[in-house]
Design goal:
CATH architecture of the largest domain in chain A: 3-Layer(aba) Sandwich
CATH superfamily of the largest domain in chain A: P-loop containing nucleotide triphosphate hydrolases
Structural class of chain A: alpha/beta
Shape of chain A: elongated
CATH class of the largest domain in chain A: Alpha Beta
Largest sheet of chain A: 6 strands, mixed
Number of strands of chain A: 22
Oligomer: heterodimer
Strand content of chain B: under 5%
Shape of chain B: globular
Number of strands of chain B: 0
Chain lengths: 528, 354
Amino acid sequence: MNVENALPEDPKKVSVRLGAEGICKRYGSVEANRDVSIAVAPGEIHAIVGENGAGKSTLMRILQGIEQPDSGRIVVDDRPVELTGPQRAFALGIGMVHQEFMLAPDLTLLENLVLGDEPVTRTLGPASPIDWRAALESGERLARETAAHVDWSRTARNTPVHIQQFVEIIRLLRRGTRILILDEPTAVLAPQQVDDLFELLKSLRDNGTTILFISHKLREVMALADRVTVIRRGEVQYCSLVADTDAGTIAGHMVGGQGALPVAAATPETRHGVSGDVVMEVRGLTTPVVEKSHPLHGVDFNVRAGEIVGLAGVSGNGQNELVECLVGLRAVDGGTVSFAGQDITHLSNRQRRTLGMGYVSADRRHEGLALEASVEANVIAGSQRKPPVRKGSFFDRGAMRRVAEERLAFIGVRYGGLGDAAGDLSGGNQQRLVFAREIASKPGLLIVSQPTRGVDLVGIAAIHGILSEFRASGGSVLLVSEELDEILSLSDRILVMADGAIVGETSAADADIGRIGRLMVMQGAGDG
Amino acid sequence: MAEEASIRRPLFEGWLDRGVGLAFPFLVALVVAAFVLLLIGENPIDVFALMFAESFGTQRRIAATLSAATPLLFTGVATAICFRSGVFNVGVEGAFVVGGLCAAFIGFTLPAALGPTLIPLAFGFAAIVSAIWLYVPGFLLARYEVDEVVSTLMLNFVAFGITGYLVNGPLLSEISGNNVTPLVHEAAQLPRLLPPSTLHAGFLVGILVVVLYGIWARRTPSGFEAALVGQSKRFSSAVGISIPATIILVMVLSGVISGLGGGSHALGQLHRFADGFSPGYGFTGMAVALLGRNNAVGIFLGAVLFGALASAGTTVQLFSDIPLDIVNIIEGTVMIFAVVELGRISLSRWRARR
């Protein structure tokens, strides 16, 4: 019994350093985590991968004690623990490096290192003099152990990001962190810095630190992790030693094509065998390197009348940037986009809309809708200057209400009153509201990004129905989605995007999930 | 947003919200003032009754209240027009002062023979110059994302400096020599509505501005677009609304209205421009806009409330032992609680920018 109560002295005797067993967590109607179990062995680098919204962040918040699970339990060193709050998790040795670093920008790196746990020369309560010499020594010792060069007298603001990240990490180690959680640590780093970070993490692992890192970049998982867990729609899909698997298999589990093979759902009869004229032509589109975005490197493709073109890809490979360029919300620095026979490369969003382009944004809450504005304002927006809504210089209130009601009824949006805030509707109805507005102007081309994200099953079926009908009526659709199932079941043609370029194209009839999955990750692993 | 539509749900909530929004700061202010009055041994009920009588008791007192409310109608609308689009313009004060000087300048330099045409000329010149005045920070915000709070606040000091120099130098009246310009020609003076009170025709212009603002905000595409931009910039640009054009439009409109306000104050109230032309009408206008939740009716009520406090303040201490400070306490408390709303705006702005 002594063995059970005492903290295990030898890490080797512990089989699970950090674990989760049967974690469930709901937010309203959304099941963010459903029966999630993971087990991280001591001295292991364990990667958790999954698309945006798969439930990774929720799991991390639970492991950090920020959120409490609805059911299930957390295990540290083989023993169940209750993480009542972040302090409790920290006391158990769990430390997290966030995407946004938690350094005070105007303090030096040394001050940041000891902040909150300063070594003192004498204990005098709040008046204790700080022992800067000891602080510097401990900083340099940690830097030496991890083979890094740090100028401790610099302010955090004037330090390159990878050094900031490094200080963030050793700050946690200095305060007793044995289990390091990193949330997409490479998102802010340049390729060379990524290599440095990986060297650091490997050396930490070799010194006994357990590392859990979150990513959706498969190349990094393959290069760094010992074991990988794939989470999709709140559930663990797959877990394997990295040595026993390959990127294509992991990608398949991330996007969910593998196993179920729902390709049959797309019946050839619903497809147009031969499509019409080219509606939109994109040639050599490139964008400048802007912080927190993925640049495009010469994107080429076209969309024909009466077809749905699906754009597949692991998230963060430039899909959002491409969509923003196409609808006129992002500047391009090379290449052309032509639409309806015109060069629209430098036209504004409004001008593109006038030519017959509709846009369903991936970010429904901030770009697709104004959540605090009324349902009526949301469904009318964009048509406020067109008759019959506008009559002379003023609104025709009756016509405006009539138009709004017609649009909402056309695709069956369920709402209480026109004056309700759009944010009061359910996710599925919000998305239908967006479609109601975008389809109303009868655009020739609809650019649709992640149309079913956060939408329940009924809503998904309805939205897929809307898209199919839109195609049947002669419209073209560019469908960007992280859900491979969705792309496979709706598209006539499928493009695969990786690393800011189109890396492959296939007709729906010849679609092969294995090949698409390989294309999705090929470019990411290209140089290796 | 949508007027008829809002009848379904937000009307009750909206009215309650607006009513409370207007009444709550005022009620808190009365409680605080009552507490102070009790401390100094006065009966709050008597004092409040006296103040009410001094604001609304007789036709003359009502006229004084409305006269004091007149500049606030303009500055309240000029502020609200920007706030509801999410543009945090605090430069109405400066534009108001500049407009006042411009109107007065026309009023005493052009030949008196022009007669009543001097009035539209003076108003027009004031409106144009003030519009250009606020166009500058509007352009800087729209084009270069220069923070409008800083730029408009600083422009206020520029306005005080320029007008202060002119009124003490080139435009100084030779006969009075006391930091004032010459009087405008009689033909350029706005008629008084209820002599001997100073209530002048500028009040009617102010009411017209409030009404036009209400119509613009609710009944026109451009008012609708401005409100959407205030709700969500990303959404607005994704549905084809130009954010820079909207920002510049509301800043220019705000300048026009500020200029008309300054012109009305110069031509109707003072009949000249003077150093210290505005005792903070622009800033009180912010409290008016916040109290009135950028709503036309709310702005009217807010302006009358502050007008009443101002007119009561000047006479209450003549007829009682009550110090003028009690009125200042009430005004200050109302402003603080109106600013709670302001805090909410800037908080949501801060979140949106992150």
